[in-house]
Amino acid sequence: MTFNASDRALAQQTLAQKLIARASGRAQVAVGEIVTCGVDMAMFHDSSGPRRLQPMLEELGAQIWDRSRVVLVMDHYVPERDDDSRRIVRIARDWAREQQLPHVYDSQGICHVVVPQHGHIRPGMLCVGGDSHSPTGGAFGAYMFGIGSTEMLGVMVIGEIWLRVPETIRMWWDGALPAGVTAKDMMLHMIGRFGMNGGRYQAVEFAGPAVAALSMQERMTLSNMSAELGAQAGLIAPDATTAAFLAQAGAPPVDMAPWFTDEGAALTHHRFDAATLEPYVAAPHSPANAHGVSRYLGTHVDVAYIGACTGAKLDDLRAAAQVLRGHKVAAGIRLIVAPASLHDQERAREEGVLQVLMDAGAELFPTACGACSGYGDPMGDGITVISTTARNFKGRMGSPTAQVYLGSPYTVAAAALRGCVTDPREVLA
Amino acid sequence: MTTDILHRPHRVWRLGADIDTDALAPGHAMKHGIDVIAKHCLEAIRPEFASKVQPGDVIVAGPNFGIGSSREQAVAVLVQLGVAAVIAPSYSGLYFRNAFNVGLLLLTCAEAESLQDGERIVLDTRTPAVRTADAHTLACEPVPGFLMEMVDAGGLLRLLRRRMAAKKEADAQHWH
Lengths: 429, 176
Fold this sequence. Notes:
With 429 residues, chain A is of the alpha/beta class.
């Protein structure tokens, strides 16, 4: 193949640069430039969305720039437990009806799982979400990041948003993950190593054979917790796995060929070996307080919580069932399972995975954000929780005296079985 | 916020590193209005803060201020309580965007942690810099002009309102 003059003129670009260049209508963009991008899709939920946006839009007398590009998910305050949550969810439902929003998912599950499951996030797009875990969209080769409600108002009115073109920090994973070790362990390992702002609000890109081997849902866990790494976006170049997921989701076919980081593009490169990774646990009160599970073995837990966008997808439920099949949770231990979406819950039911969890003694909670954000049923005072969720900040699950540990679904299930932090590989063996 | 208030001495509330959005706006309070959430601001780490903070006070913190959620109430509580600015060596990028959108000034200052709790300081928002009572000047990173414009306007909503009104007026003139 020969290069023509215009090809030669273009410098090697990262995936992040290519996505931002496309969205800003440019041939290429340079790191550090501040550019204005058109937004392909804006997602928000009952907490960050209508209750905050409606009064501001009314105050401005402005209209939504493009309803077809807006997706609303009711996931934070459902099911409604009190008058306040009823009021918040009612505002969202009434507003969705008034505005005739074409894409509304009410009590179907958590936005970061439901929205891609319906094919709304596709390679090449620039998307924003009214939630910090919006980098989940990066798993599909889209540049997606979280914003607050006021900035979302700006998007709703003009359909554009500013960006500082980020550097790319590439996390290259060689080898293959051993049995009982997951994307959540990869992520806790990286956050433990680089800290909660290690991503410096740049673009993190996950790559290498161990990433390519991950299922779409496992990739979503990596991109989701890029937020805990302090990155703006958590990108994975799309491939056949992405195409198969999107085809099943009913998304229109997309040309995925342009969406990769050029050989020789300027980036910071970190290398990891998946084959030697052990299960990871983050101790209270920071996801960055992460170490190999061996450090916390034997720590007593009261509650094992399998929930959230980053810990209760179908693949997560399957992993927990692998540990719990044919066993009962330890006496006095609560195992709570809150599947991340109705779709995944139904698939888990069909596969018998849900039955395995119930037989082990799990309590089934609604497919919503629930205890992860402390909005739903809060955890009690002074208890110790091990959870598949993304954050263990002090008070995150409702009580400042609760101790929250984070782990993979294998690790959380193993803790439920033994009543204390356990290496899941012992139980799986 | 007008910038002249920033030239009066401000009392420092000194916080540590990694102050997260759940500490600023606790999840259990999130279903309420900003006046109620503000009463719970920092309750898990500095219980007296919400009741003792005075308008014009500033927060000085360690690295990674505002890590966590996109909930901009974690900014709005500080505006509600009258906090004039936050000074820290680094911020969560998402919190940084939210702060300017809601009209709160964040100054990125490598030496922020040399400031003490209760100390009085003066902010020079144009340089920008922090001056201490014993005449030390701590340099801060420049704030892009369009973000400073947002703080001066009192946030993106007010800026949009102003721009839409100007556009309406221009359109009206055009048709006259």
